[in-house]
Sequence to fold (175 residues):
Amino acid sequence: MCILNQHKTGLILKMRKIILLISSLIMTSLLAACAPNLSPNTYSAYEVGATSTVNKGVIVSRRLVRIDNNSGVGGLAGTIGGAAAGSTIGHGSTANIAGAIGGAIVGGLIGNAVDESVNQQQGIEYIIRLETGKTVSVTQPLNMQFEIRQRVLVLFGSTTRVIPDNTPYYPAKRR
Fold:
């Protein structure tokens, strides 16, 4: 009977490890799916049909910046997964509790690091002088870059966007 219980216990521990591995993979995949799309070419459903004010401008300065959108989901998922994995360590309730606490700490740190790496990207902050005389700053990801002195259109809406100004240039008529 004792050998049978040891075999059952071994199977239960293997099943827990498999479930934890699968859960960790699912949480990592979900975390990667949470990465935001900051492209000026992407619109959310609530922005479709909404109006934006458009101003012409010229890029006067630009600099590289880091865009950080840490959601906190990674730290939470890591803490839960780490606690669950840590609780399987050792035999007895004291060892299981200690393992769960240690696993929660380590899992939280790892999950937070993964969250930061997934939700962090390079961007460019543009300083733009508008035709109105006003100067504005807009930060965008690297997927659409502009040069200094390039003509652009600044779309002011729920999200401010900068796009190239491909409209023909017609100088103002003098009277």
